[in-house]
Specification:
Elements: E1 10-11, H1 22-28, E2 32-36, E3 42-45, H2 47-53, H3 57-60, H4 65-69, E4 70-71, H5 84-91, E5 95-103, E6 109-121, E7 124-134, H6 144-148, H7 154-168, H8 174-185, E8 192-198, E9 204-213, E10 216-219, E11 225-226, H9 237-242, E12 248-250, H10 261-273, E13 277-285, E14 288-297, H11 309-343, E15 354-360, E16 371-377, E17 383-390, H12 395-414, H13 419-433, E18 439-449, E19 456-464, E20 470-472, E21 478-480, E22 485-486, E23 500-504, E24 509-513, H14 525-538, H15 544-555, E25 564-570
Parallel strand pairs: 19-22
Antiparallel strand pairs: 1-3, 2-3, 2-7, 4-5, 5-6, 6-7, 8-9, 8-14, 9-10, 9-11, 12-13, 13-14, 15-25, 16-17, 17-18, 18-19, 19-23, 20-21, 20-24, 24-25
Length: 576
C-alpha cells in the first residue's frame, strides 16, 4: 500500500525534537527518503519511500531500519558488521553505494542506490538521512558480487558447502539425507526443494517435495511418487538434466506446453507450488546420473540467474556422493534381508501346539544379526526348539549364527541324546570347526506325555548362558525357568551341562527371547525381566500372534540397538 498523493512525511512519536523543516526536505527530493535516529530506528518516512518500499509509514516508524529492510540479493539478512549503511551511521559519516537490496512489503526485493548523511539539530547528532532510488541492472550486465559469488557472499558460500559436506555425509539413510538437504537449501537458497531419483531399472520417482512454512518444514506428499518414463528426445529442462545435460534454469513458461508425461507432472508442480523460477541440476555419481535436484523460488524472491548455478552444482555434487552411499547401503540391506529370510526357518505345523515367532533386526545394522531361533522335528517325532545369540549384530554375526544353527541341527539329528549332551558336543566342536565367536543358546525338546489324542506336553532343555524362558499361565501366573543354566558356548572350557524338565499344562505359554527384548541402557536387567513378566501376564489370554505383537510393542526398549528374536509356544485347551 502506498501513501496517498499529497500526504507529507510521517513522523514517529519520538521525533518531536527533529527540525520542523525535515518534512519539506524529505518530500522535496526525487527519491525515497527516511530519517533514522542515532540508534538506527526510523523516525520519519517520505511518501516516495512508502511507494518504493510498498510499506505504510506506520508499519516502519520505530522499527530498526537495518533489521526491517536491508537484505542480500537472495533475500538473506545482512550481518550488521558487514553493513556499510550501519557502519556509516555508527561512525557519523557520509557514505554512498549502489546495488544494495531493501525488503519490500510485498516480499520482493528492491535494488537501490543510496546516500546516507548525518543529520544534526543545533550542532548535535540526531541521526542520519537516507536517500535511495531504484537501481536498474542492465540486462547484459551483472554486479561483481553476482559474478563472483552468486547467491551468497563468499564466506557464507564456503560455510554452506562445509555444512553440506558434514551433514550429508554422516548418514546412510536416504530419507534422513533428504531431510538434511532440505534444511540446507530451504529457505536459505529457495522456497522449495524437489528431488527426483532414477531407480536401477531406469524408472523415475519423485522422492521429496519440501517447503518451509514459517519455522516448520512441510512435505507435499501428494506431489511425490512414481513419475512417467523419461523421454529420450524431449528438450524440456528436467528431462535433459536426467539424461546427463548440465544444470540449467527453468520456469513455468518452459512447461506451458507438455510434450510428455514428465512435462505434464512438471507443469502441475509449478502450478501447485507457485514456483516462478527454478534451478535444476543433475545428481551425478561415478556410475551415472542418479537423478535431479530442483530448487524453486516463488514470485516474492529474485529469480535465479546463471551465476547461481555454480553454488547449487557444488551442493548437488556433495548430495550425489551421499545419495550414492545411501543407495548402496539400501541395496546391501535388501540383500541382507533376503539372506536373513533364508537363514531363519519357517515354523512347522505341529498338532497339539501353537507356535509364533518374531524377529526384529538391530535398527542401525545391516538388517541381519546374530540372534536366531529354530524349530524342527527329530527322527523319532520329538520337537526340537532353540533360541540363541551369537556375539555381534552384523553380517559376520549372521554367518556365525548360520554355522551354529546348522551344526546344532546335525548333532541333534545324529545323536539321540538329551539336550545337555547335544549342546556339550556342539560346544566342543564350535571352536575348531567354525568361525563363530562366543554365543548363548537355549536348546530344548518338546515331548508329548500320554496318548497323542489326549496327552499333555513337557519341555526338557538346557541353557548355555542364555536368558531364562518365561512360563505364563492363562490365569496370569508367571515363572522364569532358572534351572539347567550353564556357561555360554565357545569359551573353550569343558562345562558340565544339565537338563531341566518342566511340564506345560494346557493353556500355558512358554516365551523364549533374546536380550534385545529386555536389556536397556538406563535400566537393570532385573527391571527388564520384571517388565516382560508383567506384560506377558496381562496378555496371557490374547491369541498367540496378538500376544507376540503386543509384547514387542510394550516391552521392547525405546533405545534398543540390538536384534530381537522371540519364540512363543502355547499348549491349547486340549492336548490335540
Amino acid at each position: 500500500m502506498t501513501a496517498e498523493s499529497g500526504s507529507g512525511p510521517r513522523r514517529g512519536p519520538e521525533d518531536a525534537g527533529t527540525s520542523p523543516g525535515v518534512g519539506e526536505v524529505l518530500e522535496a527530493v526525487d527519491a525515497g527518503a527516511f530519517l533514522v535516529d542515532v540508534h538506527g530506528r526510523i523516525v520519519a518516512v517520505s511518501s516516495r519511500a512508502e511507494e518504493l518500499l510498498v510499506r505504510r509509514a506506520e508499519d516502519m516508524l520505530g522499527r530498526d531500519a537495518h533489521d526491517l529492510l536491508h537484505r542480500r540479493e537472495g533475500g538473506m539478512t545482512v550481518q550488521r558488521s558487514e553493513c556499510r549503511l550501519a557502519q556509516a551511521l555508527m561512525r557519523g559519516r557520509t557514505d554512498q553505494g549502489e546495488q544494495e537490496w531493501l525488503a519490500r512489503g510485498d516480499r520482493t526485493l528492491l535494488p537501490v542506490s543510496w546516500l546516507l548523511t548525518p543529520y544534526r539539530i543545533g550542532g548535535h547528532a540526531a541521526g542520519a538521512l537516507l536517500l535511495f532510488h531504484e537501481f536498474r541492472v542492465p540486462e547484459d550486465e551483472e554486479s561483481e558480487e553476482r559474478r563472483s559469488t552468486g547467491l551468497l557472499g563468499l564466506v557464507e558460500r564456503l560455510a554452506l558447502l562445509a555444512e553440506a559436506t558434514t551433514t550429508l555425509s554422516t548418514t546412510l539413510e536416504v530419507e534422513t539425507m533428504l531431510d538434511r538437504l532440505a534444511s540446507l537449501t530451504v529457505p536459505r537458497l529457495a522456497d522449495w526443494m524437489v528431488v527426483d531419483l532414477l531407480t536401477e531399472t531406469g524408472e523415475l520417482r519423485r522422492r521429496r517435495v519440501s517447503h518451509r512454512e514459517g519455522e516448520e518444514y512441510t512435505r507435499r506428499e501428494d506431489l511425490e511418487g512414481p513419475m512417467p518414463a523419461v523421454p529420450e528426445n524431449s528438450p524440456m529442462p528436467l528431462t535433459r538434466v536426467l539424461r546427463g545435460a548440465p544444470s540449467t534454469l527453468m520456469g513455468p513458461e518452459d512447461y506451458a506446453e507438455a510434450d510428455s508425461g514428465v512435462a505434464a507432472v512438471q507443469r502441475e508442480l509449478f502450478r501447485a507450488t507457485g514456483i516462478r523460477s527454478a534451478a535444476v541440476v543433475p545428481l551425478r555419481a561415478p556410475r551415472g546420473v542418479l537423478g535431479a535436484l530442483t530448487l524453486g523460488r516463488g514470485g516474492h524472491r529474485q529469480p535465479f540467474v546463471v551465476s547461481e548455478l555454480a553454488l547449487v552444482d557444488d551442493i548437488a555434487r556433495r548430495a550425489s556422493l551421499a545419495m550414492e552411499n545411501a543407495q548402496l547401503f539400501e541395496r546391501q540391506r535388501a540383500v541382507a534381508e533376503t539372506m536373513q529370510r533364508h537363514l531363519l526357518p519357517q515354523l512347522p505345523v505341529i498338532r497339539g501346539l501353537e507356535l509364533a515367532v518374531r524377529y526384529l533386526p538391530a535398527p542401525h545394522a545391516s538388517q541381519v544379526g546374530g540372534d536366531w531361533y529354530d524349530v524342527f522335528r527329530l527322527s523319532d517325532g520329538t520337537i526340537a526348539l532353540a533360541v540363541g545369540d551369537v556375539v555381534g549384530h552384523d553380517l559376520d554375526a549372521a554367518a556365525g549364527m548360520a554355522q551354529v544353527r546348522n551344526m546344532l541341527r546335525a548333532f541333534a539329528w545324529d545323536h539321540r541324546q538329551p539336550p545337555s549332551a547335544v549342546v556339550s558336543r556342539l560346544d566342543q566342536a564350535l571352536v575348531p570347526l567354525s568361525d563363530a565367536p562366543m554365543a548363548t543358546m537355549l536348546f530344548a525338546h518338546l515331548e508329548r506325555v500320554g496318548e497323542p489324542a489326549g496327552g499333555t506336553w513337557r519341555v526338557r532343555g538346557t541353557n548355555a548362558g542364555h536368558l531364562p524362558p518365561l512360563l505364563v499361565g492363562r490365569d496370569g501366573r508367571t515363572r522364569y525357568v532358572d534351572e539347567g543354566h550353564g556357561l555360554l558356548l565357545g569359551t573353550g572350557v569343558g562345562a558340565v551341562r544339565t537338563d531341566v524338565v518342566v511340564p506345560l499344562p494346557p493353556l500355558t505359554t512358554m516365551v523364549l527371547y533374546t536380550d534385545g527384548l529386555v536389556e536397556e541402557r538406563r535400566r537393570s536387567l532385573d527391571e527388564g525381566l520384571a517388565k516382560l513378566r508383567r506384560h506377558a501376564a496381562a496378555l496371557a489370554t490374547r491369541p498367540l500372534d496378538v500376544f507376540c505383537d503386543l509384547l514387542l510393542e510394550r516391552v521392547r526398549p525405546a533405545d534398543n540397538d540390538d536384534d530381537i528374536a522371540l519364540l512363543a509356544v502355547r499348549v491349547p485347551a486340549r492336548g490335540g
